[in-house]
């Protein structure tokens, strides 16, 4: 139970929190595609959606690992979010049949 509370405390709150997550997710989606070899044939809108999902899952996983609240830039959360989003890009390509 304590792990669930820690994990959900990383979730964005309020309008600025969600807007920040969308911007963060867009950047995460682009970075996730950049670390994958080759060209992915997915739209920018899908990239942003996958990035936002990756960012939210990254927040959750960061909370589970206990790195939710750090001072300065949270590199661990960024790295986790990029890896999750890259996995999601590959999964999206596998499901839709588009090269990822």
Produce the secondary structure layout.
Layout: H1 2-8, H2 14-35, H3 44-65, H4 75-96
Topology as H/E string?
HHHH
Shape: globular
End-to-end Cα distance, whole Å, is 37 Å
- Number of DSSP helical runs: 4
Regions with pLDDT < 50 over 5+ consecutive residues? 1-7
How many individual domains?
A: 1
Q: Care to count the β-strands?
A: 0
Question: What would your notes on this structure say?
Answer:
There is one protein chain. This protein is an all-alpha fold. It has one domain (2-8, 20-96). It has four helices and no strands. It has helices at residues 2-8, 14-35, 44-65, 75-96. Helix 2 (14-35) crosses helix 4 and helix 3 (44-65) crosses helix 4 (75-96). The radius of gyration is 14 Å and the shape is globular. The relative contact order is 0.20. The model is unreliable at 1-7 (pLDDT under 50).
Distinctive features:
0% strand; single chain; 100 residues; mainly alpha; globular
């Amino acid at each position: 139970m304590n792990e669930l509370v820690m994990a959900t405390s990383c979730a964005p709150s309020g309008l600025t929190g969600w807007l920040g997550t969308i911007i963060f997710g867009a950047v995460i989606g682009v970075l996730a595609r950049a670390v994958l070899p080759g060209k992915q044939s997915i739209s920018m809108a899908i990239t942003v959606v996958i990035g936002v999902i990756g960012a939210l899952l990254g927040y959750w996983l960061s909370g589970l690992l206990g790195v939710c609240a750090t001072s300065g830039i949270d590199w661990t959360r960024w790295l986790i979010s990029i890896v999750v989003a890259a996995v999601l890009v590959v999964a999206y390509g596998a499901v839709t049949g588009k090269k990822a």
